[in-house]
Amino acid sequence: MTGNVTVDGWDGRGLPPVARARVERAAADGVRTSLLSADGLAGLEVAGFDAVGEVLGTTVMQIGWRGWGGCGWQPGWGGPNRGFFGGPLPGEPVAVARPTRWSGYEPYAKAIRHGRNTALGRMRAEAAALGADGVVGVRLTEERMEGQKHEFMALGTAVRSRGRQRPERPFTTDLAAQDLAKLLDAGWVPAGIIFGLAIAVRHDDWRTNTALSPFAGNIEVSGYTELITHVRAAARDDFAARVAALGADAALMSGIRSRMWKVEAGENHTDHAAECIVTGNAIVHYRTGRRSTTSSLTILPLRSMR
After folding, report:
1. Which of 196, 266, 276, 299 fits a disulfide with 231 by CB distance 3.0 to 4.6 angstroms?
2. pTM for the full model?
3. ∠ CA 188-194-200 to the nearest 5 degrees?
């Protein structure tokens, strides 16, 4: 590596050299690759689109600095029904993925957002280079690699409309081609993939520790239920806010993923943190008055169903 430029001449901006090579190869030989099934290609035909090629965006990030890791109860200022000096009550989940005084995991949340948005952006840039109007069937994944490295990948099939109208930039959707056909027929168009993210910490108070004792039996750990419920609600709120900021009319939620882990806040003192990511599709209503089809199964398979 020389300075900020890699040996292959790429500095991280624009299309990666391998993506440029894919675009040039597609232009030279005219071969159009696709990740769609036969049914998906049939659905794409119904929707008035042609597949122009598979597109990929990826980035590997080192996420070493996560930010403050607990305790999940800290004194603060102001407000009734608060703990000491106005901080959150002991055992109350503390949202820490937003820029507030309780934003301990904000560096980690920013890194996750950056990784996902970078992967989506590079995939969209390759689609634009192919002359595509959108990318369908997008798979947006995050893989934890050795150490503190995370790979973010966006993979999909670039498509081009047979119509004359072109969007300002390629849309993205994780909908299958058959579902895209039904969406368009009903008067809706995809505006883009949206994800909401939330992280929260909860102090392991005496009630939680009692529920975890060997003699507690098979009971609900209400503290953890509270934490995971809180973080999922916060992620849904973040998802809705980002859909509204995009100017979309509605959204189709396609997935929700959450996890919880232990935080060693001090000697003989633990907290638990939880993370939730909600993924979906922002959609825009572009016309009304036409009756939509009753089924997305526009073409039935001829093979035996037995």
Report:
1. 276
2. 0.78
3. 145
